[in-house]
Structures are given as C-alpha cells and as structure tokens.
Amino acid sequence: MLAVENLEVVYEGVILVLKGVSLKVGEGQIVALLGANGAGKTTVLRAITGLLDVHRGEITQGTVTLDGAPIHHLDASATVAAGIGQVMEGRRVFAEFTVEENLRVGGHTVDRGRVAAGLERVYGLFPVLAERRGQVAGYLSGGEQQMLAIGRALMASPRYLLLDEPSLGLAPRMLGQIRELLVEINAQGTSVLLVEQNANMALSIAEHGYVLETGKVVMDGPAEALRGDKDVREFYLGLREEGAVDFRQVKHYRRRKRWLS
Amino acid sequence: MEELIASVVRGLGIGSTYALIAVGFVIVYRATDVVNFAHPALMILGAYYTSWFTFTVGLPFVLAVPAAMVSVAVLAALCERIAMRPMVGEPPFAAAMVTVGVFFVLFVLAFRLIGTTVITMGDPWGLERVTVLGVRLFQVDLAKTVIALVAIGAVAAFLKRSRIGLAMRATALDQEVAMAQGVKVGRVFGLSWAIAGATAGLAGMLIGTAAGGVEPVTALVALKALPVIILGGLDSVEGTVPAGIAIGIAESLTRTYQPAYAPWLGANVDVVVPYLIMILVLMVRPYGIFGTRQVQRI
Q1: Nearest CA to CA, how far is A48 from chain B (Å)?
Q2: Which residues of chain A make contact with B183, given a CB cutoff of 8 A?
Q3: Beta-bridge mates of residue A193
C-alpha cells in the first residue's frame, strides 16, 4: 500500500501548498485524486516521487510510506527503484529521441533482459508505438505522445503508477482509449493513482476518490458515492438537477463557489 | 601536387585534433547546457601529464597516454563535483562564468607544473616521414588523424548505444523527466566532465606531439574548437568531425598558399581563417551545419 499521511509541503520556504494531505492507494486499486488548478495535486505526486527539490519544495511534515517503509526522503531514482512510476503532466516525451529510445530511457533502472521484456509489453499494450518505434517522438500526435509517456513509465515495471492529468489536451476518442488502457494496465497488476481535472473520466474507472482543494482533502469516498454527490456533480461533472434552475433567477453571488467542510 | 596533398594531410591532422577538442565542449554542453571554458586548461594538463608519465615516471608512450587521460578525467570530475554541482539549477550563463574561474585555477596550476619551458611528449613519430603512394607525408599528421577519429568514434558510439550514453542524452533534453525515469543526474554530470576531460587530455598530447611541444599558453589553441563547434553544431558529436576537418584543411591550405598568392594579407593569416569561417556560418546557419533544429509539431 502506498500511503501519504498528513503531508505538508512548502515551496521556497514560504508557500504552504499542502496542508496535511492524507491518502491511500491499496494494492491493485485505481484511486482518483481530483481538484481544480492550483489545488496541489501535482505537488502530492512530486512529494511521493522525490522531485520536490527540483522545484525548491520541501516536505515539512508528514510521511509517505510504501508498504510501511518511509520513502519521502528518497531521491527520484530511489523511488523509481522502489517501484513507483510516474507519468508527468504535459507528457514530456523526449522530443528529439525516437519512440524506442524514449522507452529505453524509461528502462534505465532495470537490467538488460527486463528492458527487452518491457519493450515487448509496451508494444503489446500500444500497437501504434510498435509501428512508430523508429520515428522521432516529437512528431507523434498528442494521444500517441501520452501513450509513449505511459509506456515509458511502465518500462521500469512499477508497482504503483502515478499519472498527472493524462487527459490533458486529448480528443474525446483518444481519451476513451487512454481510459481503457489504464484499466488494462491496472488489470495486469499495477496500482494506479490518477490525478485528474476530468472527474468524469477519473471516477468512471476509479474505486476510490479524493477531492483536493487548496492543499486539503475536502472529501473522500468510494467513486460511486463521489459521482452521486451533489457538490461533485456541480463543480466537477458540470451537472445540475435538470430544470431546477431558472437562469433568470440565478444570483451569481449566491452560487456556492467552494466546499463547505 | 605533392605540396597540395601534403598540406591537405596536415590539415586533416590538425582538423581532427580540433574536432577532438570540440567533442569535449559538446559533451559538457549537451549534458549540462554549459559551455565549458575550463576545457583549454584541461587540455594543457593532458599534455603535461603525458610528458610527466613518459619522462618522469618512465612509462612507455602507449601507457603514458591512457594514464594521462585518466588523470585529467579524474581532475575534470573533481572540478565538476566541487565547482559545478552547486550551480545545478542556476542559469547556464552563471555556470559558464564559474567555468571561466575553473579555467584560471587550472591554468595557474599548469603554469606551476610546466613553468616557462616547452615540454615534449616523447611520442614515437617525431618528425619521421612516411611515403604513401609516392607522396612523402609526416607520420605525425597520420597519427593525429587516426587517433582523434578513433577516439571521437568511440565517444559517439558510447553516447549512441550504451545505456548511460542514452541517459546522458536524455538528461540533456529534460533533466526533470530524466530524473523521473530514475537517471542519477549528478552522476551524469560528473561522467560527462570525466569523458570531456579524457578527450581533452588526449587532444593535449596530440597538440604537443612532434616538433611543437607545449607551453601553458598553448591552451589558446583549444579556442580553435569554437569555430568547429559553431560549424558542426553545439550539440552534435558527429558534426565535429567534418567541421574540424574542414577548418583544419582551410587553415592548412591558407598557410601553404597565402604567402604565394596573397602576400599583401601579411603573415599568420591562417590563424584567423577558422574564426572567419565561424562568422560566416553564424550569419547563414546559426545552429550549425549538423546541429539539431528544434523538433516542433505545427
């Protein structure tokens, strides 16, 4: 189990971004972490993967544990070795490398035989990458680049895969594909922590969900329950009770803008 | 005709040496985004160590050269660890200024070690000549060409094929993502300086070989690598070879023919030629002839 407990993160020594966040990803689960821009979702991922110091951030309180062993003081390469893979926001493929070179970098920490096995697995999951293995990654479409970023993270065969907004900037059809792939990857035995603004997509495959707002978890529960929740429906799914509102009567200042928790 | 061939071969020799120096700049630049101005001093120290291992320690030349390369590599890695590592995350310009500081430290060290004398390498070819297809050539030019090209080929193959080479190139493209893949970025920086140091050491030996010898101010020769890098592209190891050879031959031909055909230009015009080429290239193709144009989806 990957567990974040009471995590507090400060950037530049003054900006308190996470104010005591706790969440858990159980073995074999898909867990969704929802939240608006600036809520601190990416910071949670950086804290788990040891990339905070690149951004001058620092964990001031709390722990991150993997099966009970603390990992929040490890550097990035040690967390990769511990079995945590990460797909960063905005895909971040190595644009000037070929598809296969990108994947090989993903397999940097594993030995030679497992790189070959990893390539086979990734090409099996993403046949389009196998077709384009010799092409320069920068010229792939957005969806293909996202697949490449996910495939690159899978090369180290992580037990826990953290994804930061894989839906960002993708066409709806591509989104459906990525969604199914995540289910498939999870079925192959990788636990997934899915950070998303697209709550619809995330909650449709997750077992459990957390809602993060300005550095605090304001709500958590089974995905079912979150999907049915009035506030989540309004703020994240964009759904309101049909006919319940007369738009002429809407007074904007009355509309709830934040969570009352 | 014989004069032409002889000067082309001489151009090949110095050109490949320039290319080898340029490779050191390129490797450090690619890994860390910093133009390493300390490189010329590393080169001179390479010449010093080769001389020291041959004459003071008494190693045979073929062992003295690798020993000198290792020494300079260790020294370069130390410089990286002490002076450059704290600059990680700072603007490349600031880091480049630090390399200027490192240059002066090493340069003073070289002055201390070498003094005001001219040291020789104890190389086996000296001023011997060899006759190839009826043309009498200096052995040293052929030795320079072969040694430099083999070394560059080895470095290029290492970057292209090996896992660490791939990690080095990945770090050059995006440090944070490379870290997220488990690449130990600090180690990559150290290694790139060490490889650059080894090539600098070898190049220093080649510069000091044969008649010339080396004194501390010979470090300025390493600046000829700058036109080579501009011509070949700052991020291209392969590009240094044709660029270096082109510049070497241009310089060599100027030295041979300019006194006869354009004496009004005065003496030592050949020294200026590489820089003239550099200015022309900068005007036409600023990313170099073999440099990467940025990959961009439109």
Answers
A1: 11
A2: 77, 105, 108
A3: A31, A162
Strands in A160-164's sheet, in edge-to-edge order, are A84-87, A160-164, A191-196, A30-35, A208-213, A216-222
Tokens of residue A40, six digits: 């601190």
Residue A97 contacts B, CB cutoff 8 Å: yes
Helices B185-208 and B39-51: crossing angle in degrees, nearest 10, is 60
**ipTM confidence:** 0.85
Is the minimum CB–CB distance between A76 and chain B shorter than 8 Å?
Answer: yes
Sheet holding A2-11, edge to edge: A15-25, A2-11, A57-66, A69-70
Structural domain boundaries of chain B?
2-284
Given the candidates 1.25.40, 3.30.950, 1.10.3470, 1.10.287, the CATH classification of the domain at B2-284 is 1.10.3470
Instruction: Kindly state the tokens that stand for B195.
Output: 């490889």
| Nearest of A114, A200, A208 to residue A156 by alpha carbon | A114
- Chain A: give the shortest CA distance to residue B174, in Å: 7
Compute CA distances B172 → A8, B32, B158, B291, whole Å: 32, 6, 15, 14
CB contact under 8 A, A80 and B182: yes
**Structure tokens that stand for B247 in this block:** 């510049």
The token pair at B58 is 């008494």
Arithmetic mean of pLDDT over chain A: 88
Name the pTM for this structure: 0.83
* C-alpha Rg value of chain A to the nearest Å: 19
Per-residue pLDDT tens for B208-253?
886 677 777 788 888 888 888 888 877 788 888 999 999 999 999 9
Nearest chain A residue to B168 by CA: give it.
Answer: A105
pLDDT tens-digit series, residues A63-94 = 999 999 999 889 999 999 999 999 999 889 99
